[in-house]
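Annex B, item 7. Sequence and structure tokens for protein A, then protein B.
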Amino acid sequence: MPALSIQNVRKKFGNKVTALDDVSLDVDSGEFFVLLGPSGSGKTTLIRCVAGLETVDSGKIIIGDRVVTDFPPGERNVAMVFQNYALYPFLSVYDNLSFPLRARGRLSKLLKAQSSVGTAQSTSKLSSMLGYGPVNRQTLKKDIDDRVHTVAKMLQINDLLDRKPGEISGGQRQRVALGRALIRDASVYLMDEPLSNLDAKLRSSTRVELKNLQKTLGITIVYVTHDQIEAMTMGDRIGVINKGKLIQMGEPHDVYNLPEDLFVASFLGDPPINIIEAKVSQDDASSIEFGGYKLTIPGKPSFTSFRGSKLKMGVRPEDVLISDVGASAVVRLVRSIGRTNYVSMALTETQESVTKVTTEEVNLKDGQTVKVLPNISALDIFESETQKLVWSSKKKSHSARN
């Protein structure tokens, strides 16, 4: 049974804005699932619907074995980390961390439970009901205190417990926000771009810490981001969302290498994938033409049904080859960042931009004319109008899709 199941969820704001359009996905227990998309794609709206902060127009949200679609937020047993920390500035770090336990009435509920079973039976019944031994205020306060210190040590903020949020750095505030969520025994942890306010170096190290923490605790996380690097490095699976539609899901490596449409192909990758206009050759339905060059596709797939249609060829910068044959291109700029070399070119016939990335030595000069080819084993072809993948050399089946 998945920890979270979202089934055919739709959400509109007013009559014009469709935030979520029939979104369905399952998140397994103990999975780090990343929801990736640009601003306004619907990713934050989706996790707010899961948390109960937004109502859905139709569809179901199931957490564990409970349909919680109409439950208020407090009854869904989810914890959420917001982009802007959302810490209480007048409370210490300790009190911010302990607040979820106290706010949910943990202390009062346990004390009420004790009084309801009577003094003589309190120890045995409460041990069974709540997992505690003799219950009193000191015991419960110690429980909260132990959990605060455990989480603080785990996040390396145990020396900040007496400080207020305004007295610590942004990275430390983000750790407190994470700790406030992790201190809960939640079924699902929802995180809305929690690292976006950190500087690049701290963001990189915090990604590693958060991923390791999730593995250690075995918790289920749904993580929202627009950052493809976060998605690729942290997610067990990623779901790419755009304009309220969930376009593709899968393991990061699979989504990167086998994008199902142009949006996914373009959104993943830095530098982004080269998208080049192409068409089916008039004299050979297994060949395509780009930049004035005819490229014969191995395995001779038939592109007959795409004659007269506009196609787009997708080639990752690392898969652009400079060869003795190919489409003519002019070198515009060569730059090096560390051991990685970036070559920016323009196809002579169409003036389309092409970027090549390599760690090999590059002996090219600005203005030089070269011949470029795609690595034929890493080539994707999309239909322009639908933007759907019609052929990929990385798929086992090499027949063009109608």
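Protein B:
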Amino acid sequence: MAWMHSASSYLAISQLLFLACLYLVYFPGKRLAHLIALFCLCLTAYILSRQPDIGLPGISAILSMMAILAPAVLWVIARYLFEDNPDIHKGIWVLIVSYLALRGFGLWIYDGTQSRSSVFFLIFFYVPQLIMLLLACHVVYMACRGRDSDLVELRRQLRMPFAIGMGSIVGLIIGSGFFWLGSPQLDSLYFFVIFLLILFINLGMFQIHKDTPQLIHMAGDQPALSLTGMTTDKNGSVPEELRSGTPPISKQDQLLIDRVLKAMQQERLYAEPGLTIGDLAVKVSVQEYRLRKLINQSLHYRNFNQFLNQYRIEEAARRLLDPDEQHIPISSIALDVGYASLSSFNKAFKDTHQVTPSVYRSGQAE
């Protein structure tokens, strides 16, 4: 069985290194490409750390630390790939650094005499392992959460395979270590699955090579165009000056866009709680896939919630400054413009205006 272990290891490593080189060569200077290459190296380190003849203890410790970094790198990749506002909270960085420090210190002082049921293993092994498992689970959550509202078709198609593939592999690796499920046969299975997954990704890169660069280049960036205020004329059409800089669209598509914007503004469809792009497509009598494409490519929105929030936040901001509505609670305005809760409204408002609705209403915003 040793030959199977070695063969599956070399196959997986070859595909991982190929994928890392592919992204570094074709997307130089792009953060997401660097993160993907680093993730490939972390998985390679994990495979090498499972070999029976690693050699020097120092090399083993370095490989183990790189392998431990994999869930954190995967989490950051998912954040940049699937979130249009990829800013990472300081608390997440503290969590990542903390689990790496705990695990690294534990590897440094471990002498083989500690029991698996000891406090030492609880602090320096089980706690970091649990954090890594939670990060892997959150990767799956991020990939699945925004699928329905995602307007970038390639990214939308990528979400489920990414969640099932990458999240499951990292989760299985962490889980096997957490429950001490390890053997050469099981490792060979893990390596072979990694090989198949990365091979599938590498082949997919050549199948979708025309669209992949767009996804890599846009990851982590803000939308190129934002029709702040959703200014329209009396017929609900977007003025020509706001269309400048966008690719020309057909007359038929423009009529459809104008119909959508008119319905949103004059009928206040955005104020319907839980409005989905499928609901909007039904109301304006157009196929959902076509509406997704138009809002994304013509209005340059990556997420349907961004499209809704432009209207909702604009109306809320106007009403918060209206002297005739000063007696109306902020929560009532939030519900009236379409938010299901005050907390979601506060977050969306602060993301747009950098202050809370109460500060904005008081006039203290700079």
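Comment on protein B: Confidence is low (pLDDT under 50) at residues 222-245.
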